Fold each of these.
Amino acid sequence: MELRKSYFADQRKDDLHEIGQPRPRSDSPGHVTGKTTYFADRNFPGMLHLKMVRSPHHHARIRSIDTSEAEKHPGVVKVLTAKDVPHNVYTILILIQIGPEDETVLADGKVRWKGEAVVAVLAETERAAQEAAAKVKVDYEVLPAVFDMEEALKPDAPIVNEYHGRNYYLYDSGECRKVRFGDVEAGFATADHVLEQTYQSSPIEHAPTETTGCIVAPEGNDRFTCYTNTQAMFFTLDNASIILQMPGNKLHFVGGTVGGGFGGKVDVIVEPIAILGAKLTGRPVCFVYSREEEMQISSPRAAEKVVIKDGVMNDGRIVARKVTGYTDAGAYSRHSPYGAQKGAGHYPGPYTIPNVWIDTYCVYTNRTPSSAMRGFGVTIGDFALEVQMDKLARLIGMDPLEFRFINAYRDGDMKAHRQPTEGAALIECMQEASRAANWPVAEKFMTMSSYAKGA
Amino acid sequence: MAKVPVQFTLNGAEKAEFIDSGTTLLHALRDKIGDTSPKGGCHQGTCGACTVIIDGELRLSCLTLAETCNGAAVTTTSGLSEGGVLHSLQRAFLDAFATQCGFCTPGMIMAAKVLLDHTPNPSREDVVEALSGNICRCTGYEPIIQAVLTAARSNSQNAV
Amino acid sequence: MALALQTFPTVEDAGAALKAAGTRYLGGGTLVVRAANEGDVSISGFIRSTEPALSIIRISGGEVRIGASVTMAAIARHPDLAPLAHAARAVGGPAIRNMATVGGNLFAPTPYGDFTVALLALDATVTTDYGELPIETFLAKRESNHAIVTAVGFTLPKEGGFRFLKQSRVKPKGVAVLSIATVLEQAQDGTVTSARIALGCMADRPIRARAAEKALIGRKLTADGIAPALAVAHDGTSPPTDPIASAWYRNEVLPVHLGRLLLA
Ligand SMILES: Cc1cc2nc3c(=O)[nH]c(=O)nc-3n(C[C@H](O)[C@H](O)[C@H](O)COP(=O)(O)OP(=O)(O)OC[C@H]3O[C@@H](n4cnc5c(N)ncnc54)[C@H](O)[C@@H]3O)c2cc1C
Ligand code: FES
Ligand code: FES
């Protein structure tokens, strides 16, 4: 590993001992000897297994649920439905005042996506839980479903989520997050060329090697220890506290060892219902997703659609950028209103553009709820933006790397969302990339700096 | 439900347990015997996290019924280091950053061990083939391949 | 009901036990234990036989007999079965190959069953506890006959007469887009005198490409010679659309891969 010290020399002390040095990871010895303790590496006597009965329909009204046969099944200890959950309707981001509560722990009256949890079965063995789950009878009235964001935004589309009452998230700014900077139409009017392109992505599953799950052990004093592979310990604890209407000090969360997360383990899904099961049975409970559940049920990265319209001058300057972004939240919010909002802040890209207009929508459909994944709200946008940058460079016959130098943001530039740029290093990164990739650019770009224009 | 006896050696030590008939070796090892080094990532045979060595052959413990292992010699990653000294593969995985979340690591090390037991000087292709039943979602595989090649080199140097 | 394994020293006893509802024969278990793990509650018990003959490979005078419990790994490393090693190695990764049996492969639904594709091209016979069947007949009703397969038998093809190809997206191990096996006989001048072509993933189980076989007779293995066979390669196919490939894609690439195999 090489630490290039010529850049930003005045901003850094050179007496660093750790940075720039390869250091063994503290958890590696446990990993290579098989001694690292993941949540499932614990075993409690009398532990029950939780299996979920899930909706086979994308959108349906629940007429009735009959759990009588399942309850009688040998080995079954408890069967849970919506009425057993103290605060059944929740939303994860309520902790940071992003509401309304729009999701059910166990479906109540309606299912909004295929795979939604309806009934939880707790049994002595996994097998008994599976067998009993197959005996739960749910009578559904299938409703029309919508899977496409544009269809969902049409006035006559079926309403996916009544807690919103419309198929998009209503921000305090209205039907979308908005960024307005300069006069984008005036920018297009002066541009030598205008290019509008649409980019789309499908949901992406994190597919961690360890599936999502937890084990909950009652401690005998009304307290519960939850061993979990969540990536969001305190978010999960606080949400569990709300859902279970149980003070947080009754809940002890143990975690930190995650067999791959990538953002897929930040939702609060398995813990509250497992804690409830432990509370109502007085026994330890294990709820771990099967591989199929991990792939089909856990939130993926959202499908996105990005429409980018740019005005560009023959000399390489981008003078106007208008972006409309759509994030497919699926049936429930989870982290998606935040993802769409992040997109709004991010869409100008690391470029200084004088006229910017951005609208980002968080849209509800009857698809699997989406949520966080490695740079959600940003990654797909970056893909779209950088493909667009290449297309713009081609349009004006310019080298794509030089084109980026011309537009790169630098310290002091005002960003479209009105944060002045600080600590930019794009130019220096591109200079290194130019050398490393043997992709030469004009000398004037190699002497540029992020510090100040014209340097 | 009738319990059935199973008896095999695990990392050289005799083990005998009564289990429910039809229990997989993965569950028997983890829940009964207490060796949690094999991991359950899929219970479908697709991820390789549960990989163990049975009588010198690579096997998936999630798809092997424990009863079929009566009298066998079972090896897992937890049995590789001797007297607190890491096995050359463990050392190489550690040094090469071939483990991130670590969930695939015990299975990877088992697959690599069988390879090196039979092919002390493998080519890169041999390594890729030997690890092809094991999924790693974190590392991108390259550090793992390098670790196995490094372990092979260090084994042959020590043998000289 | 809990799962239970019953082991019998003879196939006959195992066969009798297999009459009980919910029981399934256990080969290597790579499909049937997997199904139970995934919550297939129709399976309530596993039956297996440890009869030694099931694990034996016998070769004499060019006639091969492979016991049903023989694994893909055992076939791949058998010196006298070298022409088939490639097909045996096409199944799964190393651990799967140490477990996956020939008997189980005969029952593996598409997109699995790569080795069965090879057996189909070899025109194997399948021996069950009820008698012998041509493999095609066996495959057609494999779900309904409830018999235990004890062995497969076939004649070793002439040097270079057997060809096999598996196309997958992930390499070196991956589920098949399709697999193809051929057994060809050629006259001195290279004219094809007999041809058997078996296709995997082009229907719900391995099938023969009869039209293509017919179109090869009397032709030479040149681009022109095989063109008529490629043109009818997807006669009678009904490939699935699954996460690996669409039915359309499979039909589109079938002639391409068959062509490569025939010209190889
Ligand atoms: C990760 C993974 C990858 C795989 N990759 C491939 C692949 O690339 N190619 C491929 O072809 N397959 C693949 N498979 C499928 C499977 O491993 C093989 O088809 C294998 O040959 C099945 O054999 P088995 O002995 O494990 O079958 P089992 O699971 O034991 O049995 C499968 C079915 O056949 C029946 N059966 C088994 N033996 C007999 C017998 N002697 N008589 C009567 N019935 C019997 C069983 O009752 C069951 O219904 C893969 C499986 C997994 C899990
Ligand atoms: S748990 Fe056995 S292969 Fe994944
Ligand atoms: S290190 Fe995480 S799966 Fe390999």
Note: The pocket of flavin-adenine dinucleotide (ligand 1) is lined by residues B 44-46; C 24-32, 34, 68, 91-92, 96, 99-101, 103-105, 107-108, 112-115, 148-149, 175 (CB under 6 Å).
Amino acid sequence: MSRLSTLIEEGTRPVVTAEFPSIDGGGLAAVEKAADELRPFVDAVNATDNPAAHAHASNTSIAIAMSQFGLEPIMQVVCRDKNRIAMQADIMGASLFGIENVACLTGDDVTAGDEPEARRVFDLDSTQLVKVASGLAEGYYLSGRAIKAPPNLFVGAVENPFAPPLDYRVLRALKKAEAGARFLQLQIGYYPERLEAFVRGCVDAGVTRTTALLPTVVLTKSAKALSFMDESVPGISIPANMIARVAGAGDKDAIAEESYQLTLELSRHALSLRGVSGIHLTDFRHDGSLERLVRDLGIGPAFDPVATATGTTSGTTSV
Amino acid sequence: MPKLLPLLEDVVKKPVWDCRMCGQCVLHSTGMTCPMTCPKTLRNGPCGGVREDGNCEVKPEMRCIWVKAEERSHSPLNPHLWEEEFNDLRPPVDNRLKGTSSWLNLATGRDRRTPAGWQGVARERHSAVPGASMVEIDEPTMLPEGFHS
Ligand code: SF4
């Protein structure tokens, strides 16, 4: 059982997950440095899979390296770059190194990246991948070929409560839950009312009985960063008044502070919703704000009364 | 006749639904909107990249096919017989069926055949040929053209 799955099942406190920075060379030292920065404040971290269709050190290699440095990985697998055979092989391969948490994503299109000429694969879609990954843990490949010693897997996915068709998003979450997703990391969103409606819908539809919801918040420090996400990141829209609020805060420092406050508000709101099991953090600031945020919210391993007493937050835990 | 069917199907379905001849048609359950026209060929609902205006992440000038499908699935103009199938979990595409007639595959049940793992069962350990349990071609005509060459 992965630590993440245990924490989610116990449900004694909100879990904190985050996004690992992309690694392009620099050896394992580069991974270690990033792992050291995150380890005290988060329960598990996403090893991304060529985010925004840009090539980087691979999901499996980063997940394995992270676990060697005592940081629990959530290995993302996107459907864009590999067919069903390769994706199953990656999950099975990573499991040899103790990687249990797997997040299945459709993936941004190749046109979002710096190699738009690439062939897109999408042999499976994310929901199908959830089911296939769950099958691996039950002891068979998609073909039905038996796996004698099946891996322990904690399979999850992502969902976007903020993008159209809004009414359908709960059903899609339900479909993923039924396919075997035990957690859903939610897309970055700046519409608290949409998040609220989605979470309520998931509670009513029974999604949260099997599946943990982890809304995402982003740490930014300028109005420009917000405008960029609004205009350029697929599936993210930010209300004009929120951008204006940050932009109009004053000088650079005041703007950075207002951005932080906005993130803090959105985080508090997300965590206040019944049916939410924790939060996922994306940090574009890299200025210590992530630590400040978990402190202000009072969540994560640093604020786990049980773990702190027994000393399990020192970062020596391995997966 | 089986040889003519794919041609006929293409002629009928291409102009109306921009059919891609995947050979395993799900149009009836997706509000008569073909999921294979989604640039990511998603058969189980919209990706996370749908734009605020409901248009496609990849082709901003095109309405997301799942937004369209969702709207159409409630439309009074659609056959509602299958509305409850809208959120069915659709299996991975069998890429061998591309270019074959989904009408024929529907009639023979070929389009509903899925790998054992999809049905949640481990296959017998000692199957003679790898993959043998899923390759049961009843009709050579169901194979895509050029398959034998
Ligand atoms: S926005 Fe809609 S049509 Fe475009 S890739 Fe995503 S699901 Fe497919």
Note: Confidence is low (pLDDT under 50) at residues 135-149 of chain B.
